[in-house]
Amino acid sequence: MPRTALRVRRWAAIAVLGGVLAGCGTEEAGTGGPDGAPGSGAETRTATEVRPIEAATRITDANGVTVSLPKPPEKIVCLVALCDDILVELGMTPTATNSQLLAHPEFLGAEKAAEVPAVPGGFLSPEVEAILSHRPDLVIGLEDTHGKLAPALKGATTFWPLQPESWQDSVGYLRDLAALTGRTDQGEKAEKVFRTRLAQAEKEKSDKTALIVYGSDENFGVATPETDVAAGLFPKLSHYPWKSRGVDGSYSLEEILARDVDVLFVETLSFGAPDGKLSDKLARNPLWSRIPAVKKGKVIEVDSEVWAKGRGTRSLGVVLDEATAALR
Fold first, then answer.
1. Please, what is the angle between helix 81-89 and helix 167-181, to 10°?
2. E strand or H helix that includes residue 126
3. What is the DSSP string of 5-22?
4. How many CB atoms lie within 10 A of CB 97?
5. pLDDT digits (tens, 9 = 90+) for 189-248
6. Mean of the pLDDT values across residues 126-130?
7. How far apart are CA 182 and CA 184, in angstroms?
8. Is 168 helix (H, G, I), strand (E, B) or coil?
């Protein structure tokens, strides 16, 4: 299974996942506190202190990628939803985007989001000519998906490939873009708000067992903290016993039943026109009804644009609010 699929709830590869009701199932530099390594769960408490952000025309991100600009970027094209998330946190709007995240009411809302030009070609194959037609100062995409565009963009604009694997990475990218745009106050405030929300959620950790599944039909995946940014929050919020089994690993339905899942979060991913909720499709299998969460009516369909693709501090804040409410 390609790395791209692992990073975006494998949304582009779910159609090839096999098995009915089976699934794939220290201090962060610059972020201001000892939060533990990605996937470390609830071993450490999230620090709420935020280190000052200094404006800069050159940054080097946590993955060693250096971005150098002659002046603060004003026209930014987003090829990954994390970019949209960060820009909204900084009080900015993308020049163009290929994400639907902005339509969520916690972002711009449907009406204002419709005013942002869409990049044709979709997430996997955005059109270079269309990107450059906006004369962007900066183009932000996902490294393992859009890195192939770098040669075509070179000389015309600056391309910044992101590769978030944890919420700490997302905070780091927020701080980096805040520095590049000079919106340091907004960046510090957004980080503070998120850290405070996460720290509060940790104090109220639930003893219930949670599970996040995603997909478009009966072939579904299990989001794990090692491969998914939103799932990485869950060991701090609840009992979340799901671990990555590598690109070929999967959980059987029998294993899921054995874990006595109390609250089940479901992300419906569409490939074209929507054709119904994933939870309704899963309900066709009689084994699904035996899961405790299903019996108790604790199956919650969530917005996949936010939960699966957003991955920034605003999206993760929504995940925290919705998850903690359901886990009470």
1. 60
2. none
3. HHHTTTTTTGGG--STT-
4. 25
5. 999 999 999 999 999 999 999 999 998 876 788 999 998 999 999 999 999 999 998 876
6. 97
7. 5
8. helix
Give every strand in the sheet of 138-142, ordered side by side. Answer: 96-97, 76-78, 138-142, 158-162
**213 close to 278: Cβ distance less than 8 angstroms:** yes
Q: Which two tokens stand for residue 99?
A: 């994400």
Strand-pairing partners, residue 302, are 267
Going 33 to 197 to 104 to 208, the CA torsion angle's sign is positive
Look-up of token digits 């709007």 = 93
Distance from C-alpha of 191 to C-alpha of 66, rounded to nearest angstrom: 22
Residue 12: how many CB atoms within 10 A of its CB? Answer: 17
User: Who contacts 105 (Cβ-Cβ below 8 Å, separation ≥6)?
Assistant: none
Backbone angles phi, psi at 7, to 5 degrees: -85, -20
Residue type, 53: I
Per DSSP, the residues of 34-85 read: B--STT-TTSSPPP---------SEEE-TTS-EEE-SS----EEESSHHHHH
- Burial class from Cβ neighbours inside 10 Å (0-12, 13-18, 19+) for residue 17 reads buried
Q: How many Cβ atoms sit within 10 Å of the Cβ of residue 32? A: 21
3 state SS of 160: strand
